Each structure stands twice: as C-alpha cells, then as structure tokens.
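Lab notebook: predicted structure, single chain.

Context: the supervisor wants predicted structures on file for every construct in the current expression panel, including those that have not yet been purified. This is the next one on the list. No modifications to the sequence; it matches the entry in the shared construct table.
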Amino acid sequence: MNRLRRLILAAPLLLVALGGHAYAQTIPLSEISRYLNDLQTATGEFTQINSDGTISTGTIYIKRPGRMRFEYNPPEKSLVVVGGGSIAVFDGRSTSEGAERYPLNQTPLGLILQRNVNLGQARMVTGHTSDGTTTTVQAQDPDHPEYGNIRLVFTANPTELRQWIITDNGGSETTVILGDLTKGGNIRESLFNIQAAEREWQN
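Prediction complete. Output recorded below exactly as produced.
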C-alpha cells in the first residue's frame, strides 16, 4: 500500500469533537481562502485515520507557504516532512534508510500550502456544502484532476479548519482530524528541512 496515501494524503470527514456549534450558513469560498492565506504558522495535535482503518496520533507543524511536518507518537515510528517543494515520508517499517519523496505540487495537499490560495479559481472547487454545523469544500488541481482531491471541513464563527480528507488517484482515503491549533509564533525552519530530517532519521 502506498505509504503516502496512509501517512498524509488524508483529511477529515469524521465529525468528532465538533458538537456545541450553533447552526451556521455555508462559509463563502472567499472567506475560506482568506482564512487559509492568513494561516501563516500553526501547531497542534492531530488524529489520522489511515486507509486501512488504523489510527495514528501526533503533532502537526504548519508554516505557509509550502511547509508542514507530521510527528507521530509512539509506538508508530514515522515522520512526514513537507518543504522545498517535496513531501518526504519516513517509515520505520521500510527497508530503506531514507525517505520516499513526492513532488508537493502533484498532491492535493499542495493546494492549501500555496502562497496564494484562491478557491474561486475555475474548476478548482468541485463541492461546497454545509450540514448546518460544518462547511465542506472539495478541491482539486484544475489542470491535473488525476492527482486526487482534498475535502476540507470548517466550522464557523470564527472560521476554523477542523479536518481534511485526501483521496488519491487510486481512490484511497486518509483522514486527518485537527485539535485546536495554536496560531502564530515562530516555528524554526529546520523542522521542514528534508536533508536534516534524513540525517536525524539515520542516526
């Protein structure tokens, strides 16, 4: 099974810990784009539901544009580093000492890590719905829908990203459920350095 699918081509669909929110109208795409563009740095806990049904937890670091890091809690020995235009997946169960690498712009995750997120772009958004509590936006690369899609789940008042679900081109889904994000502050650049992560991983 493709490790990228299991470790980060994921996003949230389970509506857990979302109770207590008042009925909300669908959040406009312009507001969601603004929220993502304003989200420069953030840290928080996450729960990941892999395509095989297994569950992982850990800490996420976000530094837009183009950088993200998933540190997984024991007993899982895994790490995902996004930086320099690439996604590096370190898997403790792999026979390889290094990481599997993928171009960020060929994955749905790249859509929300762009410098300027514009969900109003033609053919990018393929779904925009509300269930009265959350707003879900489904997006894809309009020029390369074969890369898969991402579903982003938000609550309103104020707008907050709660989870995302990435579906790859083979139909496998991974869900990431976010805890409360701590926004702002400095996150050291070395966390997103893939070469540094490789050196640490091999020691």
